[in-house]
Specification:
- The structure holds two protein chains of two kinds.
- Chain A is about 0% helix and about 60% strand.
- By secondary structure, chain A is an all-beta fold.
- In chain A, the strands form two sheets. In chain A, strands 2, 4, 5, 9, 10 and 11 form a six-stranded mixed sheet that branches.
- In chain A, a hairpin with a 4-residue loop joins strand 7 and strand 8.
- Chain B is mostly beta strands.
- In chain B, a hairpin with a 6-residue loop joins strand 7 and strand 8.
- Chain B starts with a strand and ends with a strand.
- The chains are: A mainly beta, B mainly beta.
- At the A-B interface, strand 4, strand 5 and strand 10 of A face strand 4, strand 5, strand 9 and strand 10 of B.
Chain lengths: ~110, ~120
């Protein structure tokens, strides 16, 4: 079983829809990253969370440490949001090992 | 905005050859990382580096791999005696966790093809 599980694996949405991507993890963590990987392969860090909620523009990320679960929400989705969204956890213990989820491929259709 | 730069963007090598992938992290960052992504698979952690030494490494990072910060700006990944299965996109990243909420900053990657 993967230490970091994401759902769904693939998601197709109509432009304007509210989107939720989920991430569950089974290890102790000190922080969780949400990353965006563009079709060309480049990776951009969206958020780093250790508790609560963060918002940036149309993106909202939440984390529930007790339930070992995080969600990434996209409001008013747009075709340019089409990408692979990756959840990655920073393992606890004071070190810097990051474990990645398999990613959620999002396609937003105009 | 400051960025992590990686060179080359593409590297083709023959099996058994040594390659060096180069990265220039963001100048005031303290932690440096290498990750790889085999085509169609998830990103995998290779190694983290802090204070001029490896702080964490994965099972993938065996004796074939080494990292170095030869000067104040470059961070390199050396792969000795490359194998076909080393073909992947290699990403460098840096961060400064001393800043609250600091994110990882990724380079654009080096696509390594081992023939």
């Amino acid at each position: 079983k993967n230490e970091v599980e994401q759902s769904p694996q693939n998601l197709t949405a109509q432009e304007g829809e509210f989107i939720t991507i989920n991430c569950s993890y089974s290890v102790g963590i000190s922080a969780l990253h949400w990353l965006q990987q563009h079709p060309g392969g480049g990776i951009v860090s969206l958020f780093m969370l250790s508790s609560g909620k963060k918002k940036h523009g149309r993106l909202i990320a939440t984390i529930n440490i007790q339930e070992k679960h995080s969600s990434l929400h996209i409001t008013a989705s747009h075709p340019r949001d089409s990408a692979v969204y990756i959840c990655a956890v920073l393992n606890s213990g004071g070190y810097q090992k990051v474990t990645f989820g398999t990613g959620t491929k999002l396609q937003v259709i105009p | 905005e400051p960025e992590v730069t990686q060179t080359p963007s593409h590297q083709v090598t023959q099996m058994g050859q040594e390659v060096i992938l180069r990265c220039v992290p963001i100048s005031n960052h303290l932690y440096f990382y290498w990750y790889r992504q085999i085509l169609g698979q998830k990103v995998e952690f290779l190694v983290s580096f802090y204070n001029n030494e490896i702080s964490e490494k994965s099972e993938i990072f065996d004796d074939q791999f080494s990292v170095e910060r030869p000067d104040g700006s470059n961070f390199t990944l050396k792969i000795r005696s490359t194998k076909l299965e080393d073909s992947a996109m290699y990403f460098c990243a840096s961060s400064d966790p001393a800043r609250v909420g600091e994110k990882l900053f990724f380079g654009s990657g080096t696509q390594l093809s081992v023939l």
